[in-house]
Amino acid sequence: MSADLGRLLGEVDALLLDFDGPVCSIFAGYPAPRIAAELVDVLRRRSVDVPPELDSETDPLEVLRRMGAAGDQGVTRTVEDALCAAELRAIETAEPTLYGREVIVAARQAGLRVAVVSNNSAGAVSAYLSAHRLAGYVSPVVGRAYAEPARMKPNPEPILRAANCLGQAPSRCILVGDSLSDIEGARAAGVRVIGYANRAPKLAAFRAAEADVVITSMGDLASVLLSAETNDMHKG
Q1: How far is Cα of residue 101 from the mean position of the Cα atoms in its chain?
Q2: pLDDT, tens digit, for every residue of 115-154?
Q3: How many CA atoms, within 13 angstroms, populate the side-chain half-sphere of residue 228?
Q4: Strand pairing partners for 15?
Q5: For a Cys-Cys bond, which of 89, 128, 152, 192 suits 119, CB 3.0-4.6 Å?
Q6: Which is nearest to 117 in space by CA: 169, 157, 81?
């Protein structure tokens, strides 16, 4: 695995990171199922007709996606605003991913540009990076498009936007993600992809989705980035 990671990293100039998973667990202290239920409550208080199946939805991003697909932009903005506010509150109790910080710092030391491409709001991501003294290492932060959930990953658009902001061809970028939407989006964008299987069931799924490499710890990536061989490759 280390050899594969080293080869991949030697062939790119930019590291793109998904946020929730590779960098932190954003909903560690403010659970996603609670936020999803709160979003549904917001809609019901506004007399919005909410599909009954959303009563059991545990993913707030899926609530946004489903309501966005219904086509009422005013309703979508209502969900978006409530979710952005919830994400900012969640940042206060977000739990850093083990070795996530080391990956970011080591990548910059190795000469790689680092960006975040997230289905979370850019405001929440930036707040976390600032609170954890990482803002100076990461630019740009590409969050979800406001009230346009169809543009979230697996749509390749945010990944391509990050590459463009970095002035890099997609083929010179690699994305680290912990979901199939990350892998599918990266493939559609022409970007290399590392699947971060932070739960055992993801291993087979990520391999089947043809991630270039699958890791089970961000420490695997940090150790390769910290190696003198990789550092020399990108500092030259």
Answers
A1: 14
A2: 999 999 999 999 999 999 999 999 999 999 999 999 999 9
A3: 0
A4: 114, 174
A5: 152
A6: 157
* 64, 32 Cβ separation under 8 angstroms: no
At 233, the amino acid letter reads M
DSSP H or E stretch at residue 49? none
Sheet with 113-117: strands ordered across:
141-142, 113-117, 14-17, 173-177, 192-196, 213-215
Secondary structure class of 141 (helix, strand, coil): strand
Q: Where are the beta strands (DSSP E) in 32-120?
A: 95-96, 113-117
Q: What is the 3-state secondary structure (H, E, C) of 165-226?
A: HHCCCHHHEEEEECCHHHHHHHHHHCCEEEEECCCCCHHHHHHHCCCCEEECCHHHHHHHHH
pLDDT in tens, 10-69: 999 999 999 999 999 999 999 999 999 999 999 999 999 999 999 999 999 999 999 999
Using CA atoms, how far apart are residues 25 and 31, in angstroms rounded to an integer?
Answer: 10
Residue pair 192/174 in contact (Cβ under 8 Å)? The answer is: yes
Distance between CA atoms of 215 and 99, rounded to whole angstroms? 13
Helix (H) / strand (E) element for 140: namely none
Quick one: tokens of 196?
A: 């971060």
